[in-house]
Design brief:
binds flavin-adenine dinucleotide, 5-stranded parallel beta sheet, 2 domains, 392 residues, FAD/NAD(P)-binding domain, globular, alpha/beta, binds nicotinamide-adenine-dinucleotide
């Protein structure tokens, strides 16, 4: 029996594994955590909306069949010639590889950024952000140095804006907790391009801008972060901003393991695939999610969970088709829209070509969470998580 190995239990890997599990098709999944986490909600975890583990699902709750094997380990490299994946704990051979190990922050070589900024990457980095901000507030209580109360978020893409929404909801609660005057807290978002949120239309951008500035954020556009030191960001035009908290949301690139394995990659390290999500370099390797350089109508598909979850079941179908001598299916991306939350209850975006904003936008975002859980584990998972939210 041909061995299928899936690397990474993110949106694409987990949905691929769930599809194979449903069909009792044997495979091994390797992931660095025993849980799958909802990257799309990590800004909530960083902003303290719910405890970080709320944003996770144990992999054992999704993979229920004896034909499915899970290994918790960290992938280090892929030897395509020998068809072996080297992990920290042990090595694993494969006949067919499904490579879905996601993304890493893109630092663009900005000096000091990686060393001195926090990032929303996984559950652990969100815990780090929360704890860091809370420690800064505690330190302010001791020394009254207002730099502890300045938070700089670099980048006003969807991640930066969604994070701001959460922070602005959390900060008044922190101020109350530590007896700090809210007006002393300075939250600055710094964006290199002329606008925030380039993904949405101008009027929806204005809704986001007004909401976030009303809640007290300073949104600075046409301003580039060029260097970072401990507690200081340097902007173009020689300006410096001293801040106790510096969070980088300036973009993403594919996991570097793909470049190191010699795949043909684009400028963000994504490995080129054909219409069947099969590597153009190696027909024993399928690639999905943020690792894949896939195109629709000659244009690259942006790295989103939406695309990753559409790819997952197709990866499962195509890898089993090759093994069983059946026809593979081509991938087609169905863009259902983009939604950005602006704190717990409000959002903006476009759903099925219809602009949504305010509470409707917030509700639409909540609905998309439940839809995803249903896709992953049917009613059982969706109802379990819903119960967590409403405490039943
Ligand atoms: P990931 O979800 O990143 O999964 C990769 C998996 O591999 C993880 O489980 C990781 O732990 C594991 N892994 C990584 N390296 C290793 C290793 N060396 N060894 C073993 N395991 C490893 N997109 C949307 O469409 N809608 C949204 O609303 C949305 N919101 C977002 C909000 C935030 C704050 C962020 C940061 C992103 C958001 N995105 C959203 C983008 C989306 O999260 C990504 O496109 C998506 O996570 C990509 O899925 P993936 O399966 O490729 O990788
Ligand atoms: P992004 O690349 O979309 O945005 C990064 C922003 O940082 C850009 O606006 C860029 O101009 C800015 N930037 C880069 N360098 C800078 C510098 N030196 N100084 C100041 N600003 C700088 O990255 P992201 O927001 O992390 O999103 C990554 C991917 O995840 C995207 O595909 C996005 O669509 C997806 N995502 C989707 C959602 C959602 O659908 N709600 C939420 C988050 C992320």
């Amino acid at each position: 029996m041909a061995k299928i190995l899936i690397l990474g239990a993110g949106y694409s890997g987990m949905t691929a594994a769930a599809a194979l599990d449903r069909n009792s098709e044997p495979f091994t999944l390797i992931n660095n955590n025993a849980y799958h986490y909802f990257t799309t909600l990590l800004h909530e975890a960083a902003g303290g909306r719910r405890p970080p583990m709320y944003y996770t699902v144990p992999i054992a709750d999704v993979l229920r069949k004896p034909t499915s094997t899970f290994v918790q380990d960290e992938v280090v490299s892929i030897d395509r010639e020998k068809k072996i994946v080297h992990c920290k704990g042990s090595d694993h051979s494969y006949d067919y590889l499904v490579c879905t190990i996601g993304w890493v922050p893109e630092y663009f070589g900005i000096p000091g950024m990686q060393e001195h900024s926090l990032v929303i990457r996984n559950v652990d980095t969100c815990i780090e952000i929360r704890q860091h901000i809370e420690q800064q507030f505690q330190q302010y209580v001791q020394d009254h140095d207002v730099r502890h109360l300045r938070i700089v978020v670099g980048g006003a893409g969807l991640t930066g804006i969604e994070l701001l929404g959460e922070l602005l909801d959390w900060i008044p609660k922190l101020c109350l907790q530590y007896g700090i005057d809210r007006s002393l807290v300075d939250v600055q978002n710094i964006e290199a391009m002329p606008t925030i949120l380039p993904q949405v239309s101008e009027d929806l951008r204005a809704v986001a801008y007004n909401r976030l500035t009303e809640l007290g954020a300073k949104l600075r556009t046409n301003t580039k972060l060029v260097r970072v030191e401990a507690g200081v960001v340097h902007l173009d035009g020689d300006e410096q901003v001293e801040a106790g908290t510096i969070i980088w949301t300036g973009g993403v690139r594919a996991n570097p393991i793909l470049t190191e394995a010699g795949f043909t990659v684009d400028r963000r390290g994504r490995a080129k695939v054909n219409e069947f999500l099969q590597s153009v370099d190696d027909d024993h390797v399928f690639i999905g999610g943020d690792c894949a350089w896939a195109e629709e109508d000659g244009k690259p598909i942006p790295p989103t969970a939406q695309a990753a979850t559409q790819m997952g079941p197709l990866l499962a179908h195509n890898v089993t088709s090759v093994i069983h001598g059946q026809r593979m299916k081509p991938f087609h991306f169905h863009n259902l829209g983009t939604l950005a939350s602006l704190g717990p209850d409000v959002g903006v975006g476009v759903m099925m070509n219809v602009p949504v904003k305010g509470v409707v936008g917030g509700l639409a975002k909540e609905g998309s969470k439940l839809k995803y859980l249903y896709q992953l584990g049917g009613l059982r998972l969706a109802v379990d998580k819903l119960a967590d939210v409403v405490d039943i």
